Structure formats: C-alpha cells, structure tokens
From TrEMBL:
InterPro entries (alphabetical): GAF, GAF-like_dom_sf, Phyto_chromo_attachment
Stretches of the chain forming a coiled coil according to its record: none
Top-rank taxon, per record: Bacteria
Annotated Phytochrome chromophore attachment site domain residues: 33-169
Organism, as annotated: Dendronalium phyllosphericum CENA369
Gene3D superfamilies in alphabetical order: 3.30.450.40
Protein name: GAF domain-containing protein
Length: 179
C-alpha cells in the first residue's frame, strides 16, 4: 500500500483541475472563433447579395436542425431558432444536398414545389430562396440559405458561386464547426 503526502495529493488534484479548465477554455475559444466566422460570413453574404435574410441551418441530429445564425436586413425577418416543418427534410433531400445540390428558386409562387414546402416558405416570408449545402468530411453539416422576402428574385450564377464559396470556407476547417 502506497501512502501519499497531502502536498502530493493537492498537486495532482490541482493539475487535474487545471487540465479540465484548459479543455473548457480551449472549447470556448474554438466556439467563439467559429461563431465569429459564421457571423462574418452571413453578414457579408447578405450585404453582397442584397438579400433580406441569410441563415445557417445546422443539423443537430439525423436531418433535424434549426436556424442557429442569421443576418437580417430588418429584424421583422428573424427566424432564429426555426426548425422547419416536421419531416420535411428527409433522406431523399439529404442525398441531393450530399451530392452538392444547389437549389435556387426565383419565385416560390411559380416554382413547382410541394404545397407543404410552399406553405412553410410563405410562413417565414420567403419569396425567393437560394440554398447551398455545407459539406464536411463526415457529411452534410448544414445549409447556407439566402432569402429574398419582399419580391421574386432571379439568382445569378455569381450569387450561387458566392454562396458555394462561403459554404466551402465554413466547411474548410470542420474542427471549428463542431457544436
């Protein structure tokens, strides 16, 4: 049986506590860096695209997610925390986005989309929609979405390229994206 002195025990205990605190601090710094990158990205996209809203929809479980970041032209367009409609995003849609699908809708009233999807987009005041996937090595992490709320809008190839580049920038360092 080995006996340790009180000073030995205190030192080992303090070292363990310090390591734990360092891990917490490292995660906090990483999260702050991630949040700043996402906030800067969504703000720059909204300003450059002159869109009413740019959001990041994060998947926290198998195709269940929510809007975790948004940049708005007006606070009346806020959908922060929105989870979408139940079961609207399924394996079929996920497979499309995993394959790199970009969805650009110039006018939800004219686009041949499911009625439930159109109703959902109306409920969050969307008239035109541009969606690109955020793909990390583990798969589909989230969606980067631009909304034009007040009128139809034809999304240009430059708009699409800008959104794709932003999504790739966010995905490039997937370590910072871990929530």
């Amino acid at each position: 049986m080995q006996i340790h002195s009180q000073s030995e025990f205190s030192h080992n205990s303090n070292s363990h506590i310090e390591q734990g605190l360092q891990r917490v601090l490292d995660r906090l710094v990483k999260r702050m860096h991630r949040d700043a990158l996402i906030r800067q990205t969504t703000n720059q996209l909204r300003e450059t695209l002159q869109a009413d809203r740019v959001v990041l929809y994060y998947f926290y479980s198998q195709w269940y997610g929510q809007v975790t970041f948004e940049s708005l032209s007006n606070n009346k367009f806020s959908i922060l925390g929105s989870t979408g409609t139940d079961n609207s995003f399924n394996d079929e849609y996920a497979a499309l986005y995993l394959a790199g699908r970009v969805r650009a809708i110039a006018d939800i009233e004219l686009e041949p989309i499911q009625t439930c999807h159109r109703d959902f987009l109306r409920s969050i005041k969307v008239r035109a929609n541009l969606v690109v996937p955020i793909l990390i090595p583990k798969g589909l992490w989230g969606l980067l979405v631009a909304h034009h709320c007040q009128e139809p809008r034809c999304w240009s190839s430059l708009d699409i390229e800008l959104m794709q580049t932003a999504a790739k920038t966010l995905a490039k360092d997937s370590n910072i994206l871990a929530f």
